[in-house]
Amino acid sequence: MTEPTELPAVHESWLPREHPMHRPRHGRRQLTALVCALLFLTAPATTWVFGARAEQLENRPLAEFPGITEGWGFLTGLSPWAAENLPFRGQAVRSVHGISQGVFGEQARLESGAHSSPVGTGSDQQQPRPPLNENVFPKVIEGKAGWLYLGHDVAYPCTPKRDLDEVIAGLRRWRSVVEASGREFQLVIAPDKSTMYPANLPEHYAGEDCSSQAREEFWRRLPTATGAVDMREPLRDAADRNGRAIYHDIDTHWTHEGGITMVYQLAERLRPGSTAGWKLLPSREYPHSADIPDQLGQSRTVPIRAYSLAPDGGADNTRFQPSDFHEPLRLESAPKPGMVDAPTRMVGDSFTQFASPYLAATFADIAIVHPEEIAKRPQETGALLAEGDVVTFELSERFVSGGRYDLLDPAVADQVGAILAADPR
Fold first, then answer.
1. Which pathway is this protein assigned to (predicted)?
2. DSSP H helical segments within 112-163, as ranges?
3. Last residue of a domain, one of 153, 173, 205
4. What percent of the chain has pLDDT over 90?
5. Residues 172, 114: one domain?
6. What's CA 259's distance to the chain center, in Å?
């Protein structure tokens, strides 16, 4: 009869080397892995001291260094901080893409995950359906005729953080608290490029079914339920009049013509007939750095056509003042005929950047703040909104349909609403 085997009374690393259960506490591979991990995590800080700076490749700020007070979040936050802040990251991404395209004739696949890649093509249709996790969707969808689409157009509707009922309830709550304070409320949803130009999407791509269904339900329900300005038809009309697309082929945003169309829509809703005397003329053309190629580590530009806008039919009244609105942008000018003279406070994202010169031309007193700042700084942004007789929101379809805006939490609207109620109109 075989005696039962007993485990050694000491740790396996203390056993004699010839013992079959001996395991070193730190083998060579473990030491190598530890050294590599240490170099990876400390490289951004070390190289920063010598003047190297990380390059922002995505349409958002680089990951910040995690706070020590975040508990386990400090450890989980180290990896994304180190990965995004590595120096020469942009050159590495561009090199990989150059080799992949030049040698193999295809886009490089740099994403982790079974079915993810920086560029989604028809080949995704041959793979099993990916789990509903935004990280497995492509960052960029390569469409027809060289068109590029931002992968978030698909990923966010397919992986919503709030369902459509919650989104609608959040937006209706904003209308309620603003109007209860005696102010006028306007809501504009900037459509995704994939909504306006679906014909240039590839035949098949990851997330095609779920994003298409979400988009259809979104536009069927949300404008009616929230009173939002449906920009789709006005944008199509403007594109037909101008004889060219109103979204860039390699940028996710609308053109200046899209921004102007939004300004016309807002002005007519706030002051019907005010746009009748506006004089709009083409002005300068300049190169604009397209945002979608940045996702692939590429630097490409698109030509931008700007316009002059005279609300009274006289001299140009536009003002180009770049801003991302994370610090509020204030635009004030002497009122002229055709202008909206009511103090207006606006919540707007990157789509509004293409409208701000024309808002400056046609609104005598307007200030714009980014949607992210509402939940981050409710007291400050609430005080800003309280300055206005009109409160306007411009929000992007992908973020609304995916429930990604923190301001969609009714508690945020209530907090700002209390500030508005304390200073009624």
1. Glycan biosynthesis; alginate biosynthesis
2. 152-158
3. 153
4. 67
5. no
6. 17
Q: Which two tokens stand for residue 97?
A: 């893409």
Mean pLDDT confidence for 241-257: 96
Instruction: Say which DSSP state 340 is in.
Output: B
> In this structure, are 348 and 215 located in the same domain?
yes
- What are the structure tokens assigned to 136, written together? 């497995």
Please return the burial class of 131, using the count of CB atoms within 10 Å of its CB with bins 0-12, 13-18 and 19+.
exposed
Residue 50 lies in a domain: no
For residue 390, give its domain range.
159-421
Q: For residues 278 and 312, state if they share a domain.
A: yes
Strands 148-150 and 301-310: unpaired
- Could you tell me how many helices (H) and strands (E) the chain has, helices first? 15, 11
Is the model's pTM score more than 0.85? no
C-alpha span between 82 and 39 (Å, rounded): 10
Q: What is the number of domains present in the chain? A: 2
Q: How far apart are CA 41 and CA 85, in angstroms?
A: 10
pLDDT of residue 402: 96
Of 204, 294, 200, 308, nearest in space to 245 by CA: 200
Q: Per the structure block, which two tokens stand in for 385?
A: 């909104």
**Could you tell me if 222 and 364 lie in one domain?**
yes
Contact, 281 vs 306, CB < 8 A? no
Q: Which of 2-16, 85-99, 187-201, 345-359 has the lowest mean pLDDT?
A: 85-99
Evaluate whether residue 15 is within a structural domain. no
